[in-house]
Amino acid sequence: MSNPDLFYNLLPRYNRRQDMAQGSPLQALLDILKAPYDAIEGDIEGLYDDWFVESCAPWVLPYIADLIGGTGFDQTDQSGLDVRRMVADAIAFRRRKGLASVLEQVIEDVTGWTAAVVENMPRTAQTGSLRKTHDLPGRLPNLRHKPETAEPFAGRTRLASLRPGEGLLPAQVRAFVWRREVFPLRGVEAFVETHYPERRLLHPLGQPLRLYQRRPRRPHLNERCSAHMAPLALTQAHLGLSIRFADEPKHLAAAAVVLADLSAWKHPLAEPKARVAIDPASGRLLLLDPADHHKVVLADYVYGGADVGGGPYRRPDANLPTALPVLRSFRTVANADITDPLFWELESLPPEGGIIEIADSRTYAPESGLDGWSIDLSGPVSRTAVIQAAQGERPCLRGDIHVTAGPAGGVLLLDGLLLEGRIHLDGPVTLVVNHCTIFPRNRIGTALVVEEGSSAHISLDGTVTGMILLNGKRGRLTVADSILDSHVSISSSGDSVPELQIERSTIKGAVYACRLTAENSLFLGKLTLMEDGDLHCCFQPSAPASAAGLKREGEPVFVSEIPGHPGYFQLSALCPQAIGQGASDGGEMGAFHRAALWRRLGNLERAIGQYLPYGLDGEVVFPSWAD
Fold it and tell me: What is the pLDDT of residue 1?
């Protein structure tokens, strides 16, 4: 209420004077009407906002879509989809129905994927017809000539297609749809190979990494998708790759960076000016000048992946058990004058804790002589420490993290980070990990350890991690929308048993636990429970036919199980329907449940059917993840 005394001022002045003389009981009574008045006033103001798709409430969108003919698509909130934009563009799409550029935009709106639509007949080479020589003069493809651009943008198609019907003609319209997402990164410190300082890897954890060209803004409605707008593999360094050394202010010139095959780490035949060779298929980097072998390499590049694990994408807020107190924020970046700025920020946190935001994508290691990071949350009251990446950045912390807490407990929140090392918890610690990637050195050993006798509460959301070992006597481990690339072992040390709750996650290794509650998850390894678990719509390959809540129809098929691959543990289109649509809400099971692959495929089919001109035949092609 803009005027808190609105009702009271409507009374005559004589009554207000009498009320004030008696202690203002009437004013207190009228104050009770403030809350319902504000609710009614806000609802009236919202009615005006609901007239427009840009400002209306989410529940109004389906009604507006029904009025303008934008129905027929699954408008459930999904990762990567903007339902509001889908409805807002419906009228513009209807006015331009039948154009290839509009079909590209419709596919992007209803699926979130990039698409390129081409007219197939002028691009198709075909043999001549003996019956209709004057209509179809034959054209032969040149298979020896390698096109300079990818298949949708080449002059002639290189995809063989035989279709039933008269003349066995291919589809008149072909839509190329890329399922992958690409994310740009700036100033990433390259990983150094042990004993070979000239060998580097662009991924800070030393994982394979596929590079893509930089994708510009979304094209206008009348613009067509070109080779520079699609998420294609990197073929020219200047399209999405910049390299510089930490001691040099400028990036290397284009002539100093060459693309080569470094699968065997062989020195490529390059020009004398070349200083760096990069393999875009694996993310390997080779320093050609011996004078640069011991320099720090910083790279700007575009990689393919998904919104799981540490990344520069826009992350949702962390699911905290309790509200965080108001904390001071400390913004840190790599500084040549300070050996380790992050270490000093951790040491200077106030008694109640604080928020440390890392504003770059560099790699931070503990001070010389220390084997890791030490975070002490002990104090007379609960202490809270937050270490988070700034939006658009993906920093890497190298070294083990040791977290201790006193009887009052403590909270540690990690958000948007890459962690190369182990996390040790000792004491009543509440650990919240939001969209991070945690792997020990060389992926050997345990990624998360709870010391024996500790009572820790751990929450993993949108996280990729290795082995987890809990030896506590109490506590809980909650995993949601995450990938566990190894085993999970929970043992009890007393009468109290730690609880394990898993939702919409993929667990590659075996699970050993006492109590388990799981839903819409994929268990690829052996599942050993000391007590009967509560499982609902989960997959386990060795589950008996009578097991409640477990499915074993078919086997899940993944695009890749290699960390760093853009399709890491994403379900393939060849996956059985029982897995792809086996979740409780009809979606896919596993860590990418929110990605809603099959719902997007349904929207794609409806878009082709609604916006393709009458009499034309359409075909959808999904380029391989290596393209």
Answer: 52
